Amino acid sequence: MSNAIEISGLRKIYAAQGNAPAKEALKGVDLNIPSGSIFGLLGPNGAGKSTMINILAGLVNKTEGRVVIWGFDQDVNPRQSRAAIGVMPQELNMDPYFTPRASLEVQAGLYGVPKADRWTDGLLELVGLTDQAEAYARNLSGGMRRRLLLAKALVHRPQILVLDEPTAGVDITLREMLWNNVRKLNEQGMTIILTTHYLEEAEEMCDEIAIINHGQLVVRQGTRELLSRADGKTLVIDTGEPVDLPALPDGATPEWRPDGRLAISYPPSRIRADQLLDALRSANVPIIDVASEQPDLEDVFVELTRG
Ligand SMILES: Nc1ncnc2c1ncn2[C@@H]1O[C@H](COP(=O)(O)OP(=O)(O)OP(=O)(O)O)[C@@H](O)[C@H]1O
Question: Domain ABC transporter, which positions (predicted)?
């Protein structure tokens, strides 16, 4: 399977309700998600990410378009396409009187997983809830609830796992545990789709990234290629003390930072770092230390979703 998911011409119009007018949340999106990848779906608030994920999960009906999940067209084989995907939702709602073990058993029942094929103990172990297997959900910490949600998404051994803002508001330890789990599942062949507001996280975790804005796909690229789109780097130089600056190559912009260091932003496509350093040296500007700052996903994201 080369693509885990194929989306074409996907539109969603939420009908008008009361005073709220109809809303076109997705305006004809085409997107293929390669199998085996960790794929980031990013966009500002209200861009349409949850709508897209909910359509994939079979929770929201699309208005138009075609969605193929693991080779199964949603409209032709709804059961198989649903079975191929597991979703870890954002919200932490769960029945307070269910134990993690019972939750997983109920979820497996909903997916029609026969008793003999269930892997409840393995799942509890995977997410580190073995000791809490018989605790009431209301006694679980927020982090444990999230781990349980991850386990619930996996009861039917889906080929594709969707994580909707999995680390919003979680502490570093839990975040690392989640990512270790996700990497392990990905190494075993699972395709991972992730939405997150933490762009650093997307930059670190995702092989490829799609950005949607106002219901449209703005870009879809490998993470590295996407980062290289931002044509801006910064040299940060410790000059010891403020000095007069010589003329710099056209396109370079110097600025003194509050910490006293000199920051020169420049487009690496047109200017090389040694041209900047040569200009400083020939004007006898002391160069005590130099650091280079790369553009990050945040820069690219802001540029692509502006306006
Ligand atoms: N059930 C609904 N009824 C009407 N409009 C909706 C509904 N759900 C979402 N919308 C609207 O559709 C648009 C896209 O919303 P969606 O939740 O998909 O965005 P999002 O990218 O997931 O945003 P966020 O990051 O805030 O979760 C928004 O304008 C939202 O108000």
Answer: 5-239
